[in-house]
What we know:
The protein is α/β, with parallel strands linked by helices. The protein folds into two domains: 2-50, no CATH class; 77-112, no CATH class. It has helices at residues 8-17, 38-43, 56-67, 84-92; strands at residues 2-3, 23-26, 47-50. It has a three-stranded parallel sheet, with helices on one face. β1 (2-3), α1 and β2 (23-26) form a beta-alpha-beta unit. It is extended. 5% of the residues are buried.
Amino acid sequence: xxxxxxxxxxxxxxxxxxxxxxxxxxxxxxxxxxxxxxxxxxxxxxxxxxxxxxxxxxxxxxxxxxxxxxxxxxxxxxxxxxxxxxxxxxxxxxxxxxxxxxxxxxxxxxxx
Length: 112
């Protein structure tokens, strides 16, 4: 079970819906403390893993794919700050996109 929502209602339900000896991976970032049933973790022998966005296994998989020649360049489009609206429009219009991230970058990232 992956908790990507980081919503207090979800936290309260996680241990109730996972099978005995199941796993809960907390991916979402909670802004405030949330109720979590520790007794359920013990009695159901659950494994709870916290992760900051990606796991070590994710990175190993990515490195393996890149080392075998996976064309990762096709997955990434870099926009300048002036093109930020284009990224928002792509998301809003159901474009072929998984995630749009914005940030201040250094070097000449925006030059093609």
